[in-house]
Design brief:
Order of helices and strands: EHEEHHEHE
Strand content: 5-15%
Radius of gyration: 20 Å
Shape: globular
Mean pLDDT: 89
Helix content: 40-55%
């Protein structure tokens, strides 16, 4: 195999030091946790009587539910495992972020961690008790009650956006150190 061109690294959203990227990650996560918990509080206060609010011509419904499982109510009997997964994800992100120098990666990981911690708070402090708490969900698209699409919350949205952003960064070869690999692959490789 011969190389047609040697891959090189170019700066892409690089910050001066790891501390700056780490602070971006923590800032994004903290803002999201705060926003998530605030919107859940508003949902409980405003929708706790069982009312459903239709907005955007029926594209979105605000409809309060308490979810013991994951998306599509998967794993409702395994509620205790979700806080463990959230803790492992959060610790893994914090550990891997020590050498982070990319603000796009910091934002993606902050979104993921913020979403994980937002739902972790529900699992730890909501009924029926620690490690078994039900997550407050209140956003339903196309129909009330999650009839057409799973009902979700701000933390779920942050997780999804963060994962999509991370996949995009990987696909575009943006490294966590703030460089982007450019160049052609060795001939004969797909």
């Amino acid at each position: 195999m011969t190389l047609q061109e040697t891959p090189s690294a170019r700066p892409m959203g690089r910050v001066r030091n790891a501390r700056t990227a780490y602070l971006v990650l923590l800032g994004v996560a903290a803002v999201l946790v705060g926003l998530d918990q605030w919107t859940k509080h508003l949902a409980i206060e405003g929708l706790g009587d069982g009312s459903v609010v239709r907005i955007l011509g029926g594209l979105v419904y605000l409809d309060l539910t308490f979810n013991p499982g994951a998306a599509f109510s998967i794993g409702t009997g395994l509620t205790w495992i979700f806080p463990i997964v959230a803790i492992v994800i959060s610790v893994g992100i914090l550990w891997s972020a020590r050498q982070l120098r990319s603000w796009p990666w910091a934002a993606a990981l902050g979104l993921i961690m913020g979403g994980a911690v937002g739902n972790l708070i529900d699992r730890l402090f909501r009924e029926p008790g620690p490690m078994r708490g039900h997550v407050v969900d209140f956003i339903s698209v196309f129909a009330p009650g999650g009839e057409k699409f799973p009902i979700f919350n701000v933390a779920d949205s942050a997780l999804t956006i963060g994962v999509v952003l991370a996949i995009g960064l990987e696909l575009f070869a943006v490294r966590r150190d703030g460089t982007r690999v450019v160049g052609k692959r060795p001939s004969g490789e797909a």
